[in-house]
Amino acid sequence: MKNSYPNIFIFNKKILKKVIISLNKSGVAGLPTETVYGLGGNAYSKKSVEKIFKLKGRSRSNPLIIHYYNLDNAIKDISINKNLIKLYNHFCPGPITFILKRKENSKVQPMACANLDSIAIRFPKHKVIRPLLKKIKFPLAMPSANKTSNVSPVKASDVFEEFKSKVKYILDGGNSKIGIESTVIDLTGSPQILRPGIISKKEIEKVLKLKLKNNNNKKVIRSPGMMKKHYSPGIPVRINQSKHDKKSAFIYLGKKYCNKKDFFSLSNDSNLKEAASNLYKTFRDIKKKGYKKIQITKIPNSGCGIAINDRIKRASKT
Ligand code: TXA
Ligand code: MG
Fold this sequence. Notes:
By secondary structure, the chain is an alpha/beta fold. It folds into two domains: 8-208, Alpha-Beta Complex (DHBP synthase); 237-315, 3-Layer(aba) Sandwich (Rossmann fold). Helices cover 28% and strands 16% of the residues. It is built from nine helices and 14 strands. A ten-stranded mixed beta sheet has the order 1-8-2-3-7-4-6-5-9-10, with helices on both faces. Strands 11-14-12-13 form a four-stranded parallel beta sheet, with helices on one face. A hairpin with a 5-residue loop joins strand 9 (183-186) and strand 10. Helix 8 (272-288) packs parallel to helix 9 (304-316). The chain starts with 7 loop residues before the first strand and ends with a helix. The chain binds threonylcarbamoyladenylate (TXA) and magnesium ion. Magnesium ion binds at residues 143-144, 152.
């Protein structure tokens, strides 16, 4: 199907073949996942990994997530443990990333892991990425497909906005259902959440049958990507707001101000999962409408609200 973008393609067998040929030649592609769109390349190829860092403008000290079709394919690169197996069996494929010890003889480019002895792995669930991962002979190093510190893309045209024609192929997989990045959990020692996501601490504790430590060791940056200024829509964001200043875009939950100019609801039913899925889309829409500032109401800090608060807090840092 034709669209107005030169490098966005609707998924079909023919285009899948072309993308695979490009990835085999160390190309990188914009690819849909259930969380956000990624910028994927061969994790075993130095050239691919270098391209990813360069295109994103990403610091070499910030490691990438390596995406696999299934655990069998990942085993040669990681040290497995019981917690991994439990979480994998329960949640995968799905929106969760595991930090594990990296095997010394792993073929994953050390640069993709920022030369750490650990590795981040994920098994995404999306009808476009699954057949692709199944067909290729390498895992994909794949950060979110945005320039560093911008918000992650949740549809193919968002990826185009970020990289224009610098990537040859962007596969259109519709809107990312979850809309925020995967939960990142460190399993190298006692399990610890490094980045909250739609899969909550509570759900993980239930599967592991243990209480997780809080990530309050501020001195050690356990997840180098979790810098303060991140996920920024490019205009100032103020959180915990109760009064509209009459000029900013005001983000809230519910339908109290529906059809009212300047007001943007993340969910008419105040459903936090739906709110998370609409957050980045709303940021991008507001920016495009020309607003100079965003105000956000207080978001309950429970369930998916924890992940939303994590992202909006970072977006509000200047
Ligand atoms: O949902 C997602 O996870 C998306 C999709 C495309 O899969 N990907 C994504 O990747 O959000 P990225 O690169 O934007 O975020 C990866 C996060 C960063 O915060 C990074 O620091 C952390 O994972 N990370 C990667 N390897 C790590 C490691 N070895 N130890 C600790 N944190 C790591
Ligand atoms: Mg990112």
